[in-house]
Amino acid sequence: MPTARGGTIALLAVLTLASARCSDRQDASERLELYVPVSSYDFRENPELLERIVESPFGYFRFISQQFAQSLCVRFAEELIGMPKVNLHGDGHVGQYSVTESGRGLTDFDDASVGPAILDLIRFGVAVDLVAEEKGWSDEKPVLVEEFLRGYRAALEDPETDAPEPRVVGRIRAEFGSDREPLLDWADGLMDPERLPTALVQRLIGPFAEAIHEQNPDLPSTYFEVKKAGRHRLGVGSALDEKYLLRVEGPTVAAEDDVLVEVKEIRDLSAIECVERRERDPVPILDSQSRIAYQPYEFTGFLHLEDRSFWLHTWEVHYFEISVDDLRSLEELAEIVFDGGVQLGRGHPKEIASDDSELRRALLESLDGTEGRLKRTIDELAGETVRAWEMFRAEAAASGFSN
After folding, report:
1. Which residues lie closer than 8 Å to 206 by C-beta, 6 or more apart?
2. What is the pLDDT of residues 90-112, one digit of tens each?
3. Confidence band (pLDDT; 50, 70, 90) for 178?
4. 3-state secondary structure the chain
5. What's the confidence (pLDDT) of residue 275?
6. Which of left, alpha, beta for 281 (phi over 0: left; psi -120 to 50: alpha)?
7. Distance CA 388, CA 385 (A)
8. What is the pLDDT of residues 325-353, one digit of tens each?
């Protein structure tokens, strides 16, 4: 049964490994937890993705979210036994911080689950390290990580903590304007209609729409009438996932208030040993986005279709993900970092236990006991990410790709 909630890379024709690799490269790959061979993925249908991965260590980092999480499960196996479980974002980092018409903050909850907070904290911390390095602010990396943890602690101590709006948010929002049509046209350009037969569109959107209407009877009956649909390939870590974008009628027949609905196949997180999310289970995704996001999606839901499962959510038309290039100063990065810490600190314990205050205290105690190792691990894994990216880039070049 469908369930819904209201409120809530020309490059290569074929990319293969070089037939032989130097033995020292093989030895190095065996020592790098975060290295993934280029040949592990088929980039023929999305060569732009390979470009984004090869471009920088941060791009590579974004691509290996599940490998990264599993490496933490192994590294902290003993400590995890006594750590409290929280709502995990699963892939929280600076590149997931977005600005919309109505708000800001971490988005994209495809890897959401329940598990130890340290997975989110170290992933965000490594992202901060890599972004600071890319921007030429390497001397400030420890300060930035500390700022992130300061925001996290503040929200655990007081769940009503509000971070000041980062200045980059206001600058980006001021550029949105009032005309939504160009942005809807941009979304139209993302859709590949040949990859989404009409029959499949109806199977996907029909039950979702019915469930939404049951909970929101005042919506027009034509609100979820599909006007255009197609597969899209946005993202880095999620670019190879099965994802579709639908443009639907919205509140009126006027084109300017059309609504966008994203349909995303639910990922298998079974390779991450220390998180709790059953195969095809959408509930942790829906719960985490509603509990961690400052402004949850207006409508969310899920569908099980034969042996595949999808989760769905409406988009805000004015939506902008912060990139490394958007950050004009160290201070702007620090503001994003602090805000990310506050958001995770507020969302990690929210509604997951009968007594949020007890869980917050337990999380603070856990952080006190692991903070030194957490910071060392951030530094170590940032360095390993760079080395793994260098190997990935060299392998791609040996296979015929040159950045």
Report:
1. none
2. 999 999 999 988 899 999 999 99
3. confident
4. CCEEEECCCCCCCCCCCCCCCCHHHHHHHHHCCCCCCHHHCCCCCCHHHHHHHHHCHHHHHHHCHHHHHHHHHHHCHHHHCCCCEEEECCCCCHHHEEEECCCEEECCCCCCEEEECHHHHHHHHHHHHHHHHHHCCHHHHHHHHHHHHHHHHHHHHCCCCCCCCCHHHHHHHCCCCCCCHHHHHHHHHHCEHHHCCHHHHHHHHHHHHHHHHHHCCCCCCCCCCEEEEEECCCCCCCCCCCEEEEEECCCCCCHHHCEEEEEEECCCCCCCCCCECCCCCCHHHHHHHHHHCCCCCCEEEEEEECCEEEEEEEECCCEEECCHHHCCCHHHHHHHHHHHHHHHHHHCCCCCCCCHHHHHHHHHHHHHHHHHHHHHHHHHHHHHHHHHHHHHHHHHHHCCCCC
5. 96
6. beta
7. 5
8. 999 999 999 999 999 999 999 999 999 98
Q: Which tens digit of pLDDT belongs to each residue from 189-248? A: 888 877 666 666 767 788 889 999 999 999 999 999 988 888 887 766 666 678 888 999
Q: What percent of the chain has pLDDT over 90?
A: 61
- Position 196 scores a pLDDT of 63
Residue among 195, 168, 155, 207 at smallest CA distance from 45: 195
Domain boundaries, the chain: 10-174+321-398, 181-319
pLDDT of residue 218: 95
- Asked if 33 and 384 count as a contact pair (C-beta separation under 8 A), the reply is yes
Q: What pLDDT is attached to residue 159?
A: 95
Could you tell me how far CA 202 lies from the centroid of its own chain?
27
In this predicted structure, what is the pLDDT of residue 239?
60
pLDDT of amino acid 305:
75
Within a 10 A sphere around the Cβ of 86, how many other Cβ atoms? 28
This prediction has a pTM of 0.88
